[in-house]
Write a structure and sequence with these properties.
Blueprint: H1 2-17, E1 33-35, H2 36-47, E2 50-56, E3 62-67, E4 73-78, E5 83-90
Antiparallel strand pairs: 1-5, 2-3, 3-4, 4-5
């Protein structure tokens, strides 16, 4: 009897925690992500942006900044798994002018 009560309780908990909508119908809660090659290809071919700078963050993510000549820019982060996510994007990017002392 205890096992049956436990099984019923477990089914109730699962039915409450598992969403009723299929995964494809759910809205994304995080930034858009895809394979790094796909993201870079999209930025180059569709958006027209090129790599401006990159670096490694303290938490192990590879950060890249892409921009175009009109000033639009995109920052992506890439995890060690190879998945890249859109972190930020905007307008009015200006490359700094290095001054010779």
């Amino acid at each position: 009897m205890v096992c049956r009560s436990f099984a019923v309780a477990l089914l109730i908990v699962i039915s409450v925690l598992v969403p009723s909508k299929p995964a494809a119908a759910q809205t994304a809660t995080g930034p858009p992500c895809a394979a790094r090659n796909d993201v870079i290809s999209f930025l180059r071919q569709v958006v027209g942006q090129r790599l401006v700078g990159s670096g490694l963050s303290s938490d192990g993510l590879f950060i890249e900044l892409y921009a175009d000549l009109t000033g639009t820019w995109t920052i992506i982060t890439t995890a060690p798994t190879g998945t890249s996510c859109l972190t930020a994007r905007g307008q009015a990017w200006e490359a700094p002018i290095e001054r010779v002392s």
